[in-house]
Amino acid sequence: MRVWLTPVVWIASLCALAAWLPTMTPLFSWVQPGTDNLIYNRDSFYVLLQSHIWLVLASATIGTLVAVSAGIFATRPAGRDFLPLVSQIASIGQTVPPVALLALAVPVMGFGEKPTLFALVLYGLLPILRNTLTGLNGINPAVLESAKGMGMSSAQVLLKVELPLAGRVILAGIRTSVTINIATAAIGSTIGARTLGDPVIAGLVNGNTAYVLQGAILIGLLALATDSLFEAIERTWARAFAV
Amino acid sequence: MLPNRVLSNRVLSNRVVLALALAAFGCVWLLNLGVVQPNRIVTGTGYGLYAATGWLGAGIVSSLLLVVVVLATRPVHKRYEVLAALLTVALMTLPLLLEVFALHKLPTDSAYARIGIGAGFWCLAFFLALILLETLGQLRASRRFQLSTVLLIVAGWWLCASREGLSSLSLIREYTNRADQFAQALAVHLSLSLSAVAISAVLAFALALAMVRRERMRRPLLGLVSFMQTIPSLALFGLLIAPLGALSAAFPFLQALGIRGIGWAPALLALIAYSLLPMVRNTYVALIEVPESVVDAGRGMGMSERQIFMQVKLPLALPVIIEGVRITTIQAIGLTAVAALIGAGGFGTFIFQGLGQAAMDLVLLGALPTVFLALAADAILSALKFKEASR
Amino acid sequence: MIELKGVTRRFGDAVAVDDIDLTIETGEVCVLVGSSGCGKSTTLRMINRLLPSTSGEILVDGEDINKVDPEALRLNMGYAIQSTGLFPHWTVARNIGVVPNLLKWPARKRDERVNELLILLGLDPATDAIKYPHQLSGGQAQRVGVARALAGDPNILLMDEPFGALDAITRENLQQEMLRIQRQLNKTTVFVTHDIDEALKLATRIAVMDQGRIIQHDTPEAILRRPASAFVENLIGKGDRGLKLLALRTVGELMEGHSQPREPEPGADGLNEADSLRFALSVMVWENTLQLPVYNGAGEEVGTVKREHLLQGGA
To answer: What predicted TM-score, i.e. pTM, was given to this entire model?
Structure first.
């Protein structure tokens, strides 16, 4: 249970700060003297936080489903032919900067949440795909051979042996993907998605450091909270399988 | 019998190439190949393959894909060699398709009219590139061969782009209007990301050495650098503005150096902070994983510790260190684009200006070179790593 | 009973198994022996359809295995391999219970079976059952592997060099256990090894393979006495053939029995009924004696064995 303490503390402080930032005017008036607009007020921080989390969560869910299915397909006998190409796509794709992908989504899909979600899904599935392939290919062939030799069907081998054994590596891929996507979603503000990047961008455009700081602090906390959550999940997972 | 059929099936048809060719065929006929815009802001009218390039263009593209399908499914002699040659030429000359489009559809009466690239064209290029990738994989082509193929294609696009026929392409219009700014953005982008890589390389080397010498420092140092990696870029850029702004206000000489809350200074700082994790981790792992037996052998032959480090450990660690540099460089090129938000310059400026003005081709003018730089850095550093590792 | 009729397996142009015929009777331990690449593992893996045969027919109890669902076929064949293939994310108990689980045995029956097997293979049900594979020694892991193969109470046991990666002493121990378990369970066993001594020790019949063909298929004694070709002769080793023959028989078979068991003389050294003749000869040479008393399991003297008999009739 102790592993869950850190993420709980981070998440609590994130929520608390999102609630109390508007009351901290004295602090921000010190940062940004000479203006009355000290607290970003176009949207409440809660709404921004919610929308940010929704974007990341949706993209992670879709990305995981697509990437894990693709990884499974490419490692089955029927899909083996596609394995070299799929793994090359996964590694070359990660060379493309996420911000460029975000920008390239706009000419195709216009402004708003949709292109942001599209870019997040597309970019986010690459690390998951690569790790799924690494995880599934990294299983000791003797284990698979004996699973088959015991009389397990292909589906049983996949569900009972392959996925649990590759799970940790896949989970690490999801963690990387979510970390990148939290950052990319923040930049999504520039293409019209409503995220915690909004105050930062607004602050940069208007030269209001207080706005920038409010957004930046919340984004940073969200990232740290998520990261510690994954840390806890990974530890629990490791303990469950003692590997 | 079953195994024989599977075996001969694999010889007979390449399902990967087949699937990609069919996908390309679908995309190129269903999506818009190009767009005609009356000026740079207004959304234009899209044209499909046939509408854009007439029977000739549609025929050439379709028969190219048909030939690919035939080669994928029939046991033609040396078919992968033929496919590789065919696809290289096709990709090199692909922009001519847009030239034909411009010739057909560009209104001659307007100086502002321009043509844009449609999703169909991008998809065609993308799928052809994937088929080429698969073909080169089947040929087990050497690194050098792959690189020359890519260079050929880039040269082809370069030549096509500099032809008069494509001067109405909106991307090229945006470029010609901003040739000076483009050169400057390139210089800023490269110098920012490369200096961040260079500085972090030196720093990371020192940190990794410290970690090798003192095991106690490993956990806190790795913890610190991975903590920084977790903070999203926009947040870190934002968090650096206030302290740097305050410093610059307090010390005029810093301001004279150009160090302010926005601009290159916070960008460089943040880039270095991000570069540290991959750099430190790889350098440390590389140094620690030199086999003890090799070091012992060196000692046994009477080498000094310094000689062992310079002649044994460092050369053996180099490929892994270069891998760290590769990851860092790619990452820095991408993050420099984000740094344009805090006024650091570079290609990100075009991206965010374009987004602000809803001028998609300006966005492309920023995004495409960024992607290109990252891919080029990847190619160069991978080649270097490969060369070091194979020594 | 397992019958292979004209079975061939090709990998591309290479022929791994070349038109072999082999019949393995029920309760028999058939050891396939040969150097690496001779096709012995390929043959084994065709029996449980991990590899399809290119041509020919394999019958188990008269039924063509290609007409049976492969999973059902394998559930009735225990399978143990050299690298154990234990599932690293499961405990020893769960590893052993995998086939009973696949067969949907009730939990109680399964747990009893797992306990029974742990004891049969000399593992501790209390401490070893909850361990994970990476916490086991090589010998223990192999014991678990064998236990897992036996768990579903299969009629047939397929073993692919199960003791190949173990050190000499552990291997020797496990071979003894195998013999003991086989006496108890009487499973039809196909065992693959490259070690002729292991083959001589465990087999009721040996099939010597070379380049995808079966060179000789016979009892260990017949293989030693009448090797079919120079290859087999080489494999069994010309030099110590006599000693190997001695190793096949026990002291009990050759001794002159007393009419009635006697109390042993105090302090006298002797042999056990179950010791091999090879062992007896070694003791005699070492102690430089012409004869030795033989004791049974209860410690009573049941006969004597003489060196001259050993030399004349042993081999």
So the answer is: 0.87
